[in-house]
UniProtKB/TrEMBL annotation:
It comes from Marinoscillum luteum. Keywords: NAD, Oxidoreductase. Residues 154-363 form the Glutamate/phenylalanine/leucine/valine/L-tryptophan dehydrogenase C-terminal domain. Belongs to the Glu/Leu/Phe/Val dehydrogenases family. This is Glu/Leu/Phe/Val dehydrogenase dimerization domain-containing protein. Pfam families: ELFV_dehydrog, ELFV_dehydrog_N. The keyword Oxidoreductase applies.
């Protein structure tokens, strides 16, 4: 089993890369502009590595390296299982976005992305905006997730929400024998971009929707727009519900929450929902809760930017591809059952199988 929570000391970078199977790690530095960034290319068998750039005030350089390695590996599996012809990569910029982010910093980072000559394509992630993508675009074409007004694909959240909804339906089919969500009690954690679009799909199907957020203004906006009930964050995990949809932060499936959960399905948009991947996937399985793997059902967003990267962006094509999450999710659930493994491991295995198979096609002549 590959260690997904590596402790990376400088002297162990190559052994960690070997263990996690990374291709390349690029350290980008500009003393004058104060840029310290790391680009991690995990796997390019399916195509150029793609994954967003995250800006974060890391406590140490080791922590930044660890995040770049972990996130880029995750992108390999997400892109592969989404059926896209791109590999996994991710970049991190070290520093407080509110204090040091400037046009010059973004453009300098864009130059480093450009130096990889298309091996890595970047996009938005935490603390990065569409405006930042515009700056990066001034220095390199290898950036996607550009605003619609500039000919890009725009906000990916509606597509992400649609994929989550589709994955939830496939999971319901497995749990209840029908994918109809009418009357199901569904708790959406996080009334943000994705959560709000998801609620719209669920209400159209006459589900009974509950919502939780830590900010009053988010709750006010969503309750003004939709007929939903508010749940206090502290009551969320103990509530009687059919489906829990984490659409806020990661690691909400952990030692404390899983034993409390009263639901048949977990299906949401948040990245890295499992605190410890294998341990908590196993815990959900032993409690008989169907877990729709996050990196599969939230892949609508990367699908959206992928089609922008391919040129001739076509929204209908993006939705058709995202709709395939239904059958892939069914395949994952079947594989897990037949092989007595977790749905998380099943999804990883199906992603790996695709990388291996397509790799053979590429070698053929
Ligand atoms: P967002 O920031 O718009 O929304 C997140 C919401 O969660 C916010 O309203 C925030 O107040 C709320 N929140 C934070 N902590 C909470 C808590 N403890 N309890 C309840 N609510 C809490 O983000 P988003 O774009 O909607 O993304 C949601 C999640 O989906 C994130 O984890 C993101 O990484 C993931 N994701 C998003 C996309 C996309 O296309 N936007 C794609 C893939 C994955």
């Amino acid at each position: 089993m590959i260690d997904t929570q590596p402790q990376v000391k400088n002297s162990e970078i190559f052994s960690t890369m070997a263990r996690m199977e990374h291709e390349q790690l690029v350290f980008c530095h500009d003393e004058v502009l104060g840029l310290k960034a790391i680009i991690a290319v995990h796997n390019t068998v399916l195509g150029p590595a793609m994954g967003g750039t995250r800006m974060w005030n890391y406590q140490s350089e080791e922590e930044a390296v660890k995040d770049a390695l972990r996130l880029s590996r995750g992108m390999t599996f997400k892109n592969a299982i989404a059926g896209l012809n791109i590999g996994g990569g991710k970049a991190v910029i070290i520093g407080d976005a509110k204090k040091i982010k400037t046009e010059a910093l973004m453009r300098r980072f864009g130059k480093f992305v450009h130096s990889l000559n298309g091996k890595y394509w970047t996009a938005e992630d935490v603390n990065m905006s569409a405006r930042d993508m515009e700056y990066i675009r001034m220095e390199t074409p290898y950036v996607t997730g550009i605003p619609e007004s500039m000919g890009g694909s725009g906000d990916p959240s509606p597509v992400t929400a649609y994929g989550v909804y589709i994955g939830m339906k496939a999971s319901a089919k497995k749990a209840y024998g029908s994918d109809n969500l009418k009357g199901k009690k569904i708790v959406v954690q996080g009334a943000g971009n994705v959560g709000t679009y998801l609620i719209e799909h669920l209400l159209k199907e006459e589900a009974t929707v509950f919502v939780s957020d830590i900010f009053e203004d988010k709750l006010a906006a969503v309750t003004k727009k939709f007929n939903v009930s508010v749940v206090d964050p502290k009551d969320l995990y103990t509530m009687d519900m059919d489906i829990y949809a984490p659409c806020a932060l990661g690691a909400t499936l952990n030692d404390i929450t899983i034993p409390q959960l009263k639901c048949a399905i977990v299906a949401g948009a948040a990245n890295n929902q499992l605190d410890e991947e294998d341990q908590h996937a196993e815990m959900l399985k032993s409690r008989g809760i169907i877990y729709a793997p996050d990196f599969l059902i939230n892949s609508g967003g990367i699908t959206n930017v992928y089609y922008e990267q391919q040129g001739n962006y076509n929204r209908q094509r993006v939705y058709e591809q995202t709709e395939r999450i239904y059958e892939v999710c069914q395949e994952v659930l079947e594989y897990a059952e037949n092989n007595e493994t977790t749905t998380h491991q099943a999804a990883l295995q199906l992603a790996l199988n695709r990388i291996k198979d397509v790799g053979k096609v590429k070698l053929a002549y």
